[in-house]
């Protein structure tokens, strides 16, 4: 399976994906920022990169589309990509774009998820891998991981604790898509040929 990863910054999820390439290949990385640290991680792994300025979203998407039509990836992974893709764009790649989001969706779509979970005095927090559709962070959920929130937690400690779990969640989910264990068919999510109605949770993550 050939995968294109979209990033905007640090790239720790990208690194996790690059480290676990057995059943898939990261064949290109697209960033909307020149300064994204993730670009040097891609270069470390000799993966071609393209920077597309997203100041004009329509122009950026047209550029990305030309590139993607050429690469023809099987899957696009948004890993810390901080731009919203248009309905028109995501419809062209229906159920072929996934995103990792640092909350237990449908709770806390958008930004500042850790602080919002703390403000609401949640005792549980987590991350979600989901398909990307035209509604921000609302596409069908594929998998989730959980962490407990303690009385001493801050947005920073939550972010740090969650991040290592995010890496495992994303790599496990992508690997299972690559091996055909997770797939989308006839408006349903399947795992090992069974329809799944709730996000997948793996006890070890
Ligand atoms: C992660 O927390 C991810 O869930 C969110 O953005 C962050 C990206 O981190 N969408 P990194 O660039 O992968 O290190």
Short structural summary:
It is built from six helices and ten strands.
Account of the protein in words:
With 205 residues, the chain is an alpha/beta fold. It is built from six helices and ten strands. It has one domain: Rossmann fold. Helix 1 (12-19) runs parallel beside helix 6 and helix 5 crosses helix 6 (155-178). The longest helix is centred in the C-terminal third of the chain and has 24 residues, at 155-178. The structure holds 5-O-phosphono-beta-D-ribofuranosylamine. 5-O-phosphono-beta-D-ribofuranosylamine (GRF) binds at residues 7, 9-14, 38, 79-80, 100-102, 127, 163, 166.
Layout of helices and strands:
Elements: E1 2-7, H1 12-19, E2 25-31, H2 38-44, E3 49-51, H3 57-71, E4 75-78, H4 87-92, E5 97-101, H5 113-119, E6 124-131, E7 141-148, H6 155-178, E8 182-185, E9 188-191, E10 194-196
Parallel strand pairs: 1-2, 1-4, 2-3, 4-5
Antiparallel strand pairs: 5-6, 6-7, 8-9, 9-10
Helix pairs in contact: 1-6, 5-6
The structure holds 5-O-phosphono-beta-D-ribofuranosylamine.
């Amino acid at each position: 399976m050939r995968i294109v990863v979209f990033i905007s910054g640090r790239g720790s999820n990208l690194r996790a994906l690059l480290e676990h390439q057995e059943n898939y290949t990261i064949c290109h990385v697209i960033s909307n920022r020149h300064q994204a640290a993730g670009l040097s991680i891609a270069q470390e792994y000799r993966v071609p990169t393209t920077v597309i300025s997203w100041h004009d979203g329509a122009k950026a998407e047209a550029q990305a589309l030309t590139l993607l039509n050429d690469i023809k990836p099987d899957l696009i992974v948004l890993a810390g990509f901080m731009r919203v893709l248009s309905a028109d764009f995501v419809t062209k790649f229906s159920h072929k774009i996934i995103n990792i989001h640092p909350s237990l969706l449908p709770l806390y779509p958008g930004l500042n998820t850790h602080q919002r979970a703390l403000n609401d005095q949640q005792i549980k927090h987590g991350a979600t891998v989901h398909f990307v559709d035209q509604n921000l962070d609302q596409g069908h959920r594929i998998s989730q991981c959980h962490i407990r929130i303690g009385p001493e937690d801050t947005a920073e400690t939550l972010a740090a604790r969650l991040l290592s779990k995010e890496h495992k969640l994303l790599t496990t989910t992508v690997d299972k898509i690559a091996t055909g264990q997770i797939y989308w068919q006839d408006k349903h999510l399947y795992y090992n040929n069974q329809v799944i109605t709730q996000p997948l949770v793996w006890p070890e993550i």
